[in-house]
Amino acid sequence: MLKIFKVTAILEGISYLVLFSNMLLIKPNNFDLYKTLLYPIGMSHGVLFIGYVLLAILLKNSQKWSLKDFGIILAASLVPFGTFYVDKKYLKNV
């Protein structure tokens, strides 16, 4: 299940960056394209975010993450590039 969490973390981070790119780069130049892309990008990011959080909760005890580490792992899903940090620091042995 740890490999699934690693893949989910990477995909969640990528989807977060794509969502920001759509908002910051495409919206000012082409509002129709922005509206077309918003739903599929937002939906996929939402599903990946929920999967990331649920997998982190399920893995907390088996990975013996302290409360501080668990909080960092959850907070990383809210920060751009945060899940890449989690991958490098906490999931490097996978």
Salient structural properties:
94 residues, mainly alpha
Question: What topology does this entry show?
Answer:
Blueprint: H1 2-26, H2 31-59, H3 67-75, H4 82-90
Helix pairs in contact: 1-2, 1-4
Your description of this structure?
It is a single chain. This protein is mainly α and 94 residues long. The chain has one domain (2-90). It is built from four helices and no strands. The chain has helices at residues 2-26, 31-59, 67-75, 82-90. Helix 1 (2-26) runs antiparallel to helix 2 (31-59) and helix 1 (2-26) runs antiparallel to helix 4. The chain is elongated, with a radius of gyration of 15 Å. The termini are close together.
Briefly summarize what is shown.
The chain is mostly helical and 94 residues long. The chain has one domain (2-90). It has helices at 2-26, 31-59, 67-75, 82-90.
Question: What is the percentage of strand-forming residues?
Answer: under 5%
What's the tally of helices?
A: 4
Query: Would you tell me the structural class of the helices and strands?
Result: mainly alpha
Q: What level of helicity do the residues show?
A: over 70%
Cα-based radius of gyration, to the nearest Å: 15 Å
- Low-pLDDT regions: none
**End-to-end C-alpha gap:** 10 Å
